[in-house]
Amino acid sequence: MRPNEPYSTVDRLDRPSAYYNKNKRRRDHRDDDANGDAPAEPTVDPLANATTLYVGNLSFYTTEEQVYELFSKVGEIKRLIMGLDRFAKTPCGFCFVEYYTHQDALDCMKYIGGTKLDERIIRTDLDPGFEEGRQYGRGKSGGQVRDEYREDFDEGRGGVGRAIGSEYDDEPRR
Amino acid sequence: MGDYDRRQSGGYHRKRRFRDDDEHHDRRNQRRRMDSAPLPVRVRRQLLSIADSPMRRWSEEVQNIAFMVTDNYDDENLRSTFTKLAIQLHLEQPLKTPFVAAVLLVANTRKSELLGEFLTKLAESIESKIALGEWRDVKLHLKLLACLQSTLEGDGVFPLLDELFNRAADLQTASSDDTIGTELVKIIQLTIPYIMVSAHGQFHQKAAELMEKTDIIASEPHALQALVDPFIPESEDKSTASPSLCMLLQKQLQAEAGKDWELACLPRPWEMPLEDVELQEKLSSPSKHPLPAINIPVTVIAGPHPLFPEVYFSVYADQDAQSVPPSTSIASSLIRDGLIDTINILNYNRNVTARYLMDLDCYFAEGTFVKRATPFDELRNFPSNSSTWKPEDVAVDTVFSQIFQLPKAECKLVYYHSVLTEACKLAPAAIAPSLGRAIRFLYRNNPRMDLELSYRFLDWFSHHLSNFGFTWKWAEWTSDTDLPERHPCIWFLKGALDKEVRLSFAQRIQKTLPQEYHKFVGPEKEKDVPDFKFSNPDTPFSKEGQEIGALLRRKATDEEFEPLIESIHAQATEQALDPLVTSTDVFMTAVCWVGSKSLSHVLACIDRTKLRLLDVGAKSEAARSQIVTSVMDYWQAHPGIALSIIEKLLNYSVLTPFSVMDWALVAATTSNGTDGGFSLAQPHVFELVSHTVAKVTTRVRQLYTSSDIDEEGRAKETKAMRELFQAMNDALSSWAAGNKDEMMEDGDGTTTEEAMTRRWGQRWLRVFQRRAAIEEAFLLEAGKTAPAKADDSADAELIA
């Protein structure tokens, strides 16, 4: 949503998550803001024209082709970057999808985020754009940080958290 | 962010969990604060949720809000909050329009100035929406205005509708292709019922006069209607054509007039219960307001959304029990109209849309529907005087009416997929059986459906199943698996299962299928990396193939390939083969093989060899065709990957749209993919051609809507597009008539196979004739506006 658009009577699904706004101190209590007078935002929104999405909660076994098949349903994909384990260089459960237009990225948030791919509910978030290095997991083990301390057993993401279950043999799915 | 974010974060994540807790905490506080919340906040909250509750305490909700606003009429902030929100709410959530109207009507009994002011604002908005050609908003405004008819002086909304009709009549007289006039007539027709329900028992004569006028336009089939019919009859029998929406509405209105405007399905939230008899009396003799002047420009415009005649489509039309309103009943149009607008407007929150679908019965009169989740089989036992309409069926039917809207649905199709997915998640037990019956209808009718719609069905079906563990009762179609390979049922099964595999993987899908279906997901689909044919020493040029593969692997320079290519050329010439075609096959197949690990790999490999491929493609049409053939052959078990590669080759201009189309349909070169017309019966070939054409038309449209006018580029691309459509038309016409050379070689034109191929030709032909017609219509419109107002085209791009 562009900053000056009036609030609609229903929340929108094509807003970025709190992740990129985490530096903003003040929480935005817009739900009950009857006046609708949003405070002026002087800073430039890095996501205002974002064409890239971060896609999370993928299975480690989900392939580029599967991502292509699903994400092409909202528009042609310009570029797809699979998230890799920093050491093993194998998929570690996230990717970046870049579209040609901002609208396609917003539509992806609305229509694909929160649906299933490879039988997992995936998460999408608007992203200011891919930069070299961001394709690698930032956890100590080389994967994503969230996989280090997970308590549950997630077959699609290498079993239990890596900091907890020390050695778990990855069984290839196919 | 949507709720799903929170639902799925099962993992341990300190930050996230903390934030979640925080949010719950906030909400509890809000609820406690509710009563002491400032008045505008309370009004906003209550108006937003009006009629949402299945408790149906309409009069209470309506009075609460109306009293709050009128008791505090002096609070300017409150007044403006209310007015703004009432305007916004009926535009964004149109099923609530009668309830918003009821609040205004009750408020009018206490503070008539409020309604006076509101009407001024509403009239202003109507005027500006008409000027902009925002016809849906005009319709939604008029619906609200019609609900206020009882408070309007004189004939109320009728003079405005008469004026709109005059514009429609002028437009229709000027051109039979006109679509704005049809749209205006539809708006008038959909407004009349709300007038009649508001001013109960009055204006019968006015309505009859207006309907007499609309009848002239509505009863005439529109010139473009045949193009947007969801079905393509196998014989040229006009009587099977689907009726247009305007035509249906006209008949429904006449039937309703005959029943004294009963309009049983519409809610009447302005009718108060017995204990409020005093208020009811005031409502029956309200203070009246003049309708503020609304200026309609002499020339109305089509607006930002392309207009087409609409055809009524229902997936529950041929059932033995009436689970949706029949197309003879005005209820079918009124319920659907409100729901379609809700679905399309709320495309930014599919969860809310799905809620609306599930709670549909809340917004209509008591007794319109049977109880939620009533099993279909029970409908037959219902007494004849009670409704048998299942709310789930009406909801599902409406979503499908959008998926199967020609030429184009308002939103991207995947949106409607996601709405059905959410609806299934909300109420699986209620929705799944309705979907099942819809799927069976669509499957049965697939052979006579427009091919584009058959493809949309296939795409939705596979995507939907991918969200629900790929479970479907395949056993019921088992007998169809033995049909001839060009049969439309095989087309569907093969296409749907291929798409399932693309979203998952072969072994997983095999597990969901009875044995008879395994031939569609054969062992070749299990292989992630298809065999490299040149690994087999018996394949001609296997040595060169392997060597080129090895060179590609080690990212050799382009010069290093040259000796091998030349050796292939020499051998091919000896064997009387086309040298370039032969070497292209070896090279392109090797590129596919070396890049077979993933799309990134093959794209990187193509990127490195782009110059060579461009050079080859530029040299001959046959070589270009061979590039397509090699990609399609290598990835024949995984057409989805082949299509992605070809898409990129088109982007790199290694291939031209013409060469792809030629490969699939025309067969001008020997290395084509028509396979005696079998290509027409392949779902992925339709997908390929369809995407390729879409690429071309999108490009042309961009050139016309872009702010910097590139006349040369426009002319060039438009010419190329027209040539493409013309060539397709020629090729498909021959397939459809059965006089394509490749077809005649094989037989005498009487076999079932030939008949099926002709039918495929007809179905393809219709799709691309329509696409061509739509682009011509676009060019015509663009030609009218583009040169004169260069500045506006930038805005058009923003809107689009």
From TrEMBL, chain A:
<dbReference type="InterPro" id="IPR027157">
    <property type="entry name" value="NCBP2"/>
</dbReference>
<feature type="region of interest" description="Disordered">
    <location>
        <begin position="132"/>
        <end position="174"/>
    </location>
</feature>
<keyword id="KW-0507">mRNA processing</keyword>
<dbReference type="GO" id="GO:0045292">
    <property type="term" value="P:mRNA cis splicing, via spliceosome"/>
</dbReference>
<dbReference type="GO" id="GO:0005846">
    <property type="term" value="C:nuclear cap binding complex"/>
</dbReference>
<dbReference type="Pfam" id="PF00076">
    <property type="entry name" value="RRM_1"/>
</dbReference>
<keyword id="KW-0539">Nucleus</keyword>
<dbReference type="InterPro" id="IPR034148">
    <property type="entry name" value="NCBP2_RRM"/>
</dbReference>
<feature type="region of interest" description="Disordered">
    <location>
        <begin position="1"/>
        <end position="44"/>
    </location>
</feature>
<dbReference type="InterPro" id="IPR000504">
    <property type="entry name" value="RRM_dom"/>
</dbReference>
<feature type="domain" description="RRM">
    <location>
        <begin position="51"/>
        <end position="129"/>
    </location>
</feature>
<comment type="similarity">
    <text>Belongs to the RRM NCBP2 family.</text>
</comment>
<dbReference type="InterPro" id="IPR035979">
    <property type="entry name" value="RBD_domain_sf"/>
</dbReference>
<dbReference type="GO" id="GO:0005634">
    <property type="term" value="C:nucleus"/>
</dbReference>
<keyword id="KW-0694">RNA-binding</keyword>
<dbReference type="InterPro" id="IPR012677">
    <property type="entry name" value="Nucleotide-bd_a/b_plait_sf"/>
</dbReference>
<keyword id="KW-0508">mRNA splicing</keyword>
<protein>
    <recommendedName>
        <fullName>Nuclear cap-binding protein subunit 2</fullName>
    </recommendedName>
</protein>
<dbReference type="GO" id="GO:0000339">
    <property type="term" value="F:RNA cap binding"/>
</dbReference>
UniProtKB/TrEMBL annotation, chain B:
<protein>
    <recommendedName>
        <fullName>Nuclear cap-binding protein subunit 1</fullName>
    </recommendedName>
</protein>
<dbReference type="GO" id="GO:0006406">
    <property type="term" value="P:mRNA export from nucleus"/>
</dbReference>
<dbReference type="InterPro" id="IPR027159">
    <property type="entry name" value="CBP80"/>
</dbReference>
<feature type="domain" description="MIF4G-like type 1">
    <location>
        <begin position="325"/>
        <end position="515"/>
    </location>
</feature>
<dbReference type="Pfam" id="PF09090">
    <property type="entry name" value="MIF4G_like_2"/>
</dbReference>
<dbReference type="GO" id="GO:0000184">
    <property type="term" value="P:nuclear-transcribed mRNA catabolic process, nonsense-mediated decay"/>
</dbReference>
<dbReference type="GO" id="GO:0005846">
    <property type="term" value="C:nuclear cap binding complex"/>
</dbReference>
<feature type="region of interest" description="Disordered">
    <location>
        <begin position="1"/>
        <end position="36"/>
    </location>
</feature>
<dbReference type="GO" id="GO:0003729">
    <property type="term" value="F:mRNA binding"/>
</dbReference>
<dbReference type="InterPro" id="IPR015174">
    <property type="entry name" value="MIF4G-like_typ-2"/>
</dbReference>
<dbReference type="InterPro" id="IPR015172">
    <property type="entry name" value="MIF4G-like_typ-1"/>
</dbReference>
<feature type="domain" description="MIF4G-like type 2">
    <location>
        <begin position="532"/>
        <end position="776"/>
    </location>
</feature>
<dbReference type="GO" id="GO:0005634">
    <property type="term" value="C:nucleus"/>
</dbReference>
<dbReference type="InterPro" id="IPR016024">
    <property type="entry name" value="ARM-type_fold"/>
</dbReference>
<dbReference type="GO" id="GO:0000339">
    <property type="term" value="F:RNA cap binding"/>
</dbReference>
<dbReference type="Pfam" id="PF09088">
    <property type="entry name" value="MIF4G_like"/>
</dbReference>
